Automatic annotation (TrEMBL):
The active site is at H99. One of its GO terms (molecular function) is hydrolase activity. Residues 4-112 form the HIT domain. This is HIT family hydrolase, diadenosine tetraphosphate hydrolase. A motif (Histidine triad motif) lies at residues 97-101. Keywords: Hydrolase. Pfam families: HIT.
Amino acid sequence: MDCVFCKIAGGQIKSAFVSENEDFVAFDDINPVASCHVLVVPKRHIKSIKELSGFSGQALKNLLGIIDTVTDEKGVKQTGYRVIVNQGSDAGQEVEHLHFHVIGGRKLGRLG
């Protein structure tokens, strides 16, 4: 598979992980929009958010747990952060592997 996020999660492309658990890895975005801009990526290739319905309850707990760890490690847990999923080209998704942007460390404007 020629998926950059699969290669990062699998170790073929070196990246310093902010956090890792059984189901997800988290690493700094290469084009950050704030001082905290971390991508949380499933270790297995998942193309769309609707495929999360196939995840076990434990995997979903691991998703929320890694986001909690990232916000703590990056110092934004208390001040606030945003978790964003861009799904599809109209939303600006650039890599067709589900990923969550954890963004914080500055005042974030309103969406919409």
